[in-house]
Design brief:
With 194 residues, the chain is mainly alpha-helical. Helix content is 61%, strand content 4%. It contains six helices and two strands; from the N terminus they run H-H-H-H-E-E-H-H. It has a two-stranded antiparallel sheet with strand order 1-2. The chain is flat, with a radius of gyration of 38 Å. It starts with 16 loop residues before the first helix and ends with a helix.
Length: 194
């Protein structure tokens, strides 16, 4: 009996005689009952997303052999790259480091970075306040421009397919918007932050 299916009743299927003989022989060759063999076949097709009409071409063993051969080829290519590119580069870097370690540092050479300039507390506070207000102003301008653009967007319904939105502005207005977006970084240079 089939383990786990002892209490289920049998159902008959209409199968051609030649197909039934072939199926019974196959069930004997894998030592399974006809019910279990058919169940395993259906589960195999469902789990692997394969149709019985699909042809895999070669057996799984030959596919495994091809994968191993290709893996070995990739490993050989990687080893060749290591020999031809990485090892010479490593050798060059090692010689450079060795030469740099042999050069004695000049003890008389000093770097003067100058005295740090301290700002009074009020001046620093005013600087950050001004930067905050400028950022808020830029944000509000962007918000107003975005609202203006959204007012010019209209929904267009197509006869076929889904509708779309159309932006009704002139080419000059579009170019103006593009220039503003491209030159945003000019407003945040280090000179304007001081």
């Amino acid at each position: 009996m089939d383990q786990g299916y002892e209490r289920e009743r049998f159902e008959s299927l209409s199968i051609k005689t030649s197909v039934a003989k072939k199926f019974r022989n196959y069930c004997k060759s894998i030592s399974k009952s006809q019910s279990m063999a058919l169940r395993l076949m259906v589960e195999f097709f469902e789990d692997n997303g394969v149709s019985p009409e699909d042809r895999l071409g070669e057996t799984l063993a030959s596919l495994k052999g091809q994968i191993i051969k290709r893996s070995n080829a990739v490993i050989a290519i990687i080893k060749n790259i290591e020999k031809m590119h990485h090892k010479p580069t490593t050798a060059i870097l090692q010689t450079l480091f060795e030469q740099m370690s042999q050069i004695e540092p000049d003890e008389n050479e000093t770097f003067d970075f100058g005295e740090p300039k301290l700002l009074p507390e009020n001046e620093e506070l005013n600087h950050y306040k001004n930067a905050y207000y400028k950022t808020q102003e830029a944000y509000n301008d962007l918000k107003q421009e975005t609202k203006g653009l959204l007012k010019k967007v209209k929904y267009v319904r197509n006869n076929f397919g889904i509708g779309h939105y159309r932006l009704n502005i002139t080419n000059e207005a579009l170019e103006t918007i593009k220039q503003k977006l491209e030159h945003v970084h000019h407003h945040n240079t280090t000179e304007t932050r001081r």
